Amino acid sequence: MFSPEGPRLRELAVQALSSVERGYDLLAPKFDHTPFRTPGSVLDATAGALRRLGPFDTGLDLCCGTGAGVDVLAQVCRRSVTGVDFSAGMLAVARERTRPGGPPAGHVRADARALPFGPAFDLVVSFGAFGHFLPRELPELFAQVHRVLRPGGRFAFPVGAPSRPGSLVYWKLLGFDTVMRVRNAVWRPPFVMYYRTLRFGGLRHELDRAGFRVELHPLPGFGQRPDGSPRARLVVARRPEE
C-alpha cells in the first residue's frame, strides 16, 4: 500500500490519534509516498479539461496539501497561483516543490471555512479534500469559494463514480470509514476523514444553494461504467456574471 519512502505503521498510528492539523503536519514529509495523494492520472486529466475551458489569470488550490494541485493551476493560469491549507507542515513541503517556468506561486496558511481573500480568483480547484468536511459544513465551505471567485469564475474538482456495492473498493472504503467513526467515538480530538459521507447529489445540491451553476465534464481517460456513464467527471461550478 505504501512505498518504501512512505510512513511506517507506528507513524501512521501517531498521526491517526492526532488532530487533523497535527496529523498532517506529521505526515507531510512522506505524504507524496502514500495512496492518500491524488494520483497523477487524475491531476493530468483535470489539467487537460481545464485547458479546454481556459486560460485563466489567477488560481487558488483549496486545501492544497503538498502542492500537487498548485502544479495543475500553473499549467492553466497566466498571472499567479496560490495554495491554501491549514497544515503548516504540508505548506512547508509545498513551498519546496520545484516549478520551472509558469506563473508565480504563493502559499497561505488558513482554514478553508474562513478564507482570507476577497474576490481575487478566476479558478479554484480542490483535490481529495471534501472528506475532511462534514455534510453540515458544506454550505459555509462553498459560500467561501463563491466569495473569493470573481464573477464568471469557476470552481472545479474531479469526482469518481461510486464504487459498486460488494466490490473490493466498496468494502475497503466502508471499512476505513467505520474505523474512523469508532476512533472518533472514543478518542479526542476527532480526525475527520471519511470517504463515503459526501455523496455527489449532496455536493451538487449545496453548490446550487451557494449560487453556482454546475456543469459536468467527462474525463474520458478513465473509461465508462457498464451502463455507459463515465467513471470520472470534472465538476465545474461557475459563479454567474453579475
From TrEMBL:
- Annotated ranges, domain Methyltransferase: 60-153
Pfam families membership: Methyltransf_25
Q: Which processes are annotated in GO (biological process)? A: methylation
Give one GO molecular function term.
Answer: methyltransferase activity
Listed A to Z, the keywords are: Methyltransferase, Transferase
Source domain of life: Bacteria
EC no.? 2.1.1.-
- Protein biosynthesis found in the keyword field: no
| Broad enzyme group | transferase
Query: What PANTHER family does its record include?
Result: METHYLTRANSFERASE (PTHR42912)
Q: What is this protein called?
A: Class I SAM-dependent methyltransferase
Species, as recorded? Streptomyces cathayae
